[in-house]
Specification:
Shape: globular
Number of domains: 5
Strand content: 25-35%
Number of strands: 37
Largest sheet: 6 strands, mixed
Mean pLDDT: 84
Oligomer: single chain
Length: about 950
């Protein structure tokens, strides 16, 4: 059957055209129920023994996805109208629903009601799209009941009171989510429920959720219409809220409209906004503006007082939460010069699931076993979350996941619901799982569909590969790899041979991952979603399955492997004479660690071909590095930590700063050169759809903390360009050898994030990579562990005429979306790696209290942030003990970057060396932390 509808639209040229859309309806779409006597049972997805088949409305899916993911909920029909509506409203929930529907162990069946002749409904005159969709759901439910007859019961699950009333009037069995779950007789499932809003159900059903105190704690958020108008008129300012990791009562909103960050201090001014929310901010009167450096470090035990959430109408009404929200110093007001504001509305929420534990509390008496508990997130930036649970006794000693449902202006805390239990508090595996969940890292085993895309093992280079005229045979060349010790996913190798004319042939050979990962396959889709491999202290979460990462694609020694090569002819002065790009076959003669390669180069007794190639390559790399620095490339530093892990217990045995050798720098130099060469090649052929990587120049405001610190220690840094900054850093030397590295670490923290982008989205001047001082850059050298490199390999192959360019490159919006996901995944992988380091640092110091030296890197009114060079650790040191009443007042000297006692007897300045004591403490239950305490000597 064919349904047609027509409408007219106006083109860009001003012409009016008639558009006719055809909608085909069928009568052979199966219902998916094995109990059905009419449909083909081979297509059935529901249980043969299902006594009740559930049909869900859209709001149930949107709000109760945590419940639906529980195995107790099965035999669910997902209507196509619901699927489409969920996709339009929440893509994250849509993806979770699609995963449920494609999981062979779950009984979820998608029924195309919009294409079945008996269930398709037209929108009636005066009917809203939402009412039409609700009617379509009821019609489909009624059809299912009629279709199955007495063979099974069909139940519509809806929390929409009006939809439920109409369903009952039409003879359809309908229940709310809560009533259905209660009937299952599994009390723990009730904890998963998102409590319905009062307008959706009778008030008596939510009476127990009301906060006990009904006074207004927060200001009402402005309606979106008023926010939009205010933004247009410049009254409000839009930006993403970032909460200070050391002080959850202090946040910042970067605002393009005023060209500066707006400081938000106090929970009241944050007005129920979470870290990562896009918010609308109203500036406070200028006499309430505050200097950022005067703000304090929050103590772990600090908690909101009764009126801390009240939005101040004047400076006298400001929150009384010690000096954390207002930022007073020694009883006097701070210097007021930075824009300060308050949140007036939420434009886009960043709520997700959070990991943590319940605040200890006694078991409740009566009330049907329901306990109202406070959940404390491991992330201190997240406020406590109020939940209700029927399994308090089982949860008090566990790490659990909780999702936020709402935050009423009458409630001190947001309300949420329990999602699932992770494991015992303090268990290393549990805490590592928390790291992955908090950073949205997918660590699930690869599906059977993904694994089916892999070639069978054992794999070897085939005769077809050897005979391929487009693949250069380089098995005779002395190719070698240099990687960290124990590296198994080797995706790059090198060679350097002397040519008769005295020049060098230098090759960078990268694992030919795209020979095995084909566009549009489940393997490719999975890699695109994961975006990158994630490296934790004790394990690696792969982007691709291990048969590829550690065997088929890994460029191990003494085995033939497929590669994608960039080969240069270079002069002894490292000038590039020519560049060649080719698919190749290599046989690595050695897989060296950085330590082994360095030892070979340093041992003057060794004169073998491999060692000579290493020395020649290192000599070229030094010239290339010097030339790159002369162009303005920055040599920055980071506090990278290396752990020695016990092979049996997986506990850390030792911890220290990661040592960089010449061998590391040699490999890095040629990887950078290959990435630049490939960027030039793909952009020349595909100027509008190349995937590149840019590093935006930092703004003067971003560099201000570095400049202030440098000035305080007598340094004058020129930040007018990357070249000027690089030269300034080279001259920033102090009395001790660590001074320069510390300045470089501080400079690193002022930098913007490098990001992937589609070349068609920006103009060429914006392609620039500030840190590398390169006009063009991309990622080509790590396709085993980065999906960006997979994309670039496909672009390079297409530019050489080896393959046709995949269709994604014709869709700029899709390519931009892919780049956005890669940036998100890359950032999360970095954060997970750091969190893993923090976790293992806690484990290491749990039984090892230590005294050591530290350097002050940031001044605050009640202490300072220090960096511990020996361990690569950063944390707060408090000067003012909690509850101190007098004689402990400290004041910040902004100009000299010092904090000193009011009487001038003691002072501490930025970059000063201090001695500290490090010890793991637990100031709050289930929240261990590494405490850094000053040792006064």
């Amino acid at each position: 059957m064919l349904q047609s509808k027509s409408f007219v639209r106006k083109t860009k040229q001003g012409k009016v055209v008639k558009v006719v859309r055809e909608h085909y309806l069928r009568d052979d779409i199966y219902c998916g129920a094995p109990i059905c006597k009419v449909c083909d049972s081979s297509t059935a997805r529901l249980s043969p023994s299902a006594s009740t088949i559930l049909i869900l409305d859209t709001n149930v899916v949107l709000n109760q996805i945590d419940l639906l993911e529980n195995p107790a909920i099965d035999d669910v029909v997902v209507l196509s109208v619901v699927l489409e509506e969920v996709k339009n409203k929440n893509i994250a929930v849509y993806n979770r629903l699609r995963t449920l529907c494609s999981n062979s162990t779950r009984k979820f069946f998608v029924f195309s009601n919009e294409y079945h002749k008996d269930t398709y409904v037209k929108q009636m005159a005066g009917e809203s799209p939402n009412d039409r969709n609700d009617r379509a759901i009821r019609v489909a439910t009624q059809w299912y009941q009629s279709h199955l007859g007495a063979a099974g019961r069909v139940l519509l699950i809806t929390n929409d009171r009006e939809n439920k009333r109409k369903a009952t009037e039409e003879g359809i069995s309908a229940e709310t989510v809560e009533s259905y779950v209660k009937a299952l007789g599994q009390p723990g499932l009730l904890d998963l429920l998102v409590q319905p809003a009062p307008e959706d159900v009778g008030m008596e059903e939510v009476e127990d959720l009301r906060p006990s105190k009904r006074k207004v704690i927060y200001s009402e958020h402005k309606p979106m219409s008023e926010i939009t108008s205010g933004l247009h008129r410049g009254i409000y300012h839009q930006g993403k809220l970032r909460v200070n990791r050391y002080n959850p009562f202090e946040a910042y909103v970067g605002s393009e409209s005023i060209g500066d960050e707006i400081i938000i201090y106090g929970r009241g001014n944050m007005n129920r906004a979470f870290d990562g929310d896009v918010v609308a901010v109203e500036l406070l009167p200028q006499d309430q503006w505050q200097e950022e450096k005067s703000l304090s470090i929050a103590d772990e035990e600090d908690e909101e007082e009764e009126d801390v959430h009240l939005v101040p109408s004047s400076a006298d009404d400001a929150p009384r939460n010690t000096d954390l929200a207002q930022g007073s110093v020694g009883g006097t007001k701070a210097v007021l010069c930075r824009p300060s504001g308050r949140v007036v509305g939420i434009i886009k929420r960043n709520w997700h699931s959070y990991c943590g534990s319940l605040e200890p509390m006694p078991m409740p008496a009566g009330n049907g076993g329901i306990a109202h508990a406070l959940f404390v997130s491991k992330d201190r930036r997240i406020p406590k979350i109020r939940i209700q649970t029927r399994q308090l006794g089982n949860l008090l000693d566990k790490r659990i996941i909780v999702a936020v449902d709402s935050w009423d202006c009458l409630s001190r805390y947001p309300s949420g619901h329990y999602v699932r239990t992770i494991g015992e508090i303090g268990d290393r595996d549990t805490e590592s799982e928390v790291v992955l969940i908090e950073n949205d890292i997918d660590s699930r085993p690869f599906s059977s569909q993904v694994l089916a895309c892999l070639p069978p093992l054992p794999w070897s280079v085939s005769s077809e590969d050897l005979a391929n005229p487009c693949r250069l045979d380089l098995r005779h060349v002395c190719v070698f790899s240099v990687d960290p010790p124990g590296c198994k996913d080797i995706d790059d190798a090198l060679h350097c041979t002397t040519l008769p004319n005295g020049n060098f042939e230098v090759g960078v050979h990268i694992a030919d991952v795209t020979n095995f990962v084909h566009p549009g396959t489940p393997l490719d889709d999975e890699a695109a979603q994961r975006g990158t491999s994630v490296y934790l202290v004790e394990r690696r979460i792969d982007m691709l399955p291990k048969p590829l990462t550690e065997d088929i694609c890994s460029l191990r020694s003494d085995v033939e492997r497929l590669a994608f090569s960039v080969i240069w002819e270079m002069t002894p002065q490292a000038e590039i004479i020519s560049t060649k790009y080719t698919k190749s076959i290599i046989k690595s003669c050695a897989a060296l660690s950085y330590i082994e390669a360095q030892a070979r180069m340093d041992d003057s007794r060794l004169m073998d071909p491999l060692t000579m190639d290493l020395r020649n390559m290192n000599a070229l790399a030094k010239v290339m590095r010097l030339r790159r620095i002369e162009r303005g490339a920055l040599t920055l530093a980071s506090a990278e930590v290396k752990f020695q892990i016990d092979t049996e217990t997986h506990d850390p045995l030792d911890i220290g700063m990661y040592q960089i050798r010449e061998a590391n720098q040699m490999v890095e130099e040629f990887m950078l050169a290959a990435n630049v060469s490939v960027a030039e090649k793909i952009l020349k052929h595909f100027p509008l759809c190349s995937l590149l990587r840019r590093h935006p120049s930092p703004t003067r405001e971003m560099l201000e903390p570095l400049l202030r610190t440098a000035a305080a220690v007598g340094l004058n840094l020129d930040v007018s360009s990357s070249k000027a900054l690089a030269d300034s850093l080279d001259h920033a030397v102090g009395d001790d050898p660590y001074f320069n590295k510390l300045i470089r670490i501080l400079a690193t923290r002022c930098m913007t994030q490098a990001v992937y982008f589609c070349s068609g989205e920006l103009s060429p001047p914006e392609f620039h990579h500030y840190g590398l001082a390169a006009p063009l850059y991309t990622h080509f050298t790590s396709p085993i562990r980065r999906y960006a490199d997979v994309i670039v390999h496909r672009l390079l192959a297409a530019s050489l005429g080896l393959y046709k360019l995949p269709t994604i490159f014709q869709d700029k919006a899709q390519l931009t979306s892919t780049a956005d996901n890669l940036n998100y995944r890359h950032r999360n992988a970095q954060m997970a790696g750091r969190a893993s380091v923090e976790l293992h640092t806690l484990i290491y110091f749990r039984k090892r209290p230590t005294d050591t030296e530290a350097r002050i890197v940031k001044i605050r009114s009640n202490g300072f942030i220090v960096f511990v060079p020996k361990y690569g650790i950063e944390g707060p040191v408090y000067l003012t003990p909690r509850g101190e009443k007098g004689g402990g007042e400290w004041v910040v000297d902004e100009q000299q970057q010092k904090v000193k006692k009011m009487d001038g007897s003691i002072s501490y300045s930025v970059l000063q060396t201090v001695t500290i004591h490090m010890e793991v403490v637990e100031p709050q239950p289930n929240r261990p932390k590494l405490e850094l305490a000053l040792i006064c000597r």
